[in-house]
Amino acid sequence: MASVHFDQQTAQNNPPHIEPEQTYYGSYESSKPPVELRIATGGAGQSGLVRALANAFIDDRVKQTGCAPFAVGWLKSDTSGSFNSLAQAAADLSITYHPAAEDIALAQGFTDRSVYAWRDHFMLV
Questions:
Q1: pLDDT tens per residue across span 53-62
Q2: 0.70 exceeded by the pTM?
Q3: Which CA distances in Å does 80 have to 25, 29, 71, 73?
Q4: N or C end: fewer C-beta atoms under 10 angstroms in the chain?
């Protein structure tokens, strides 16, 4: 459900840079590895869920595959902003809470799948 003009060729060859709200490094913060995964979302980032998942994912991937350490950037946004970031290739994935908007994003062709994880907003305490 991008509200921007979507030109896949241009977006992939020249994605805009969006500065992450936060960057996660797993156990490798001291070496400040590059951001290799950009996640656009609102509530999941604000609640700390993206931080917890990103840090665990980084540590697991490095341990399991022997890949070089990397960072995950959280791009703070709402659903429309998340889809715009995907359409412009500024984000690699988004976490959204709007099934109808997700269907539109699929139909517009800037995402290739939608995976159900949870719905609505939440706060872990």
A1: 999 999 999 9
A2: yes
A3: 27, 31, 24, 18
A4: C
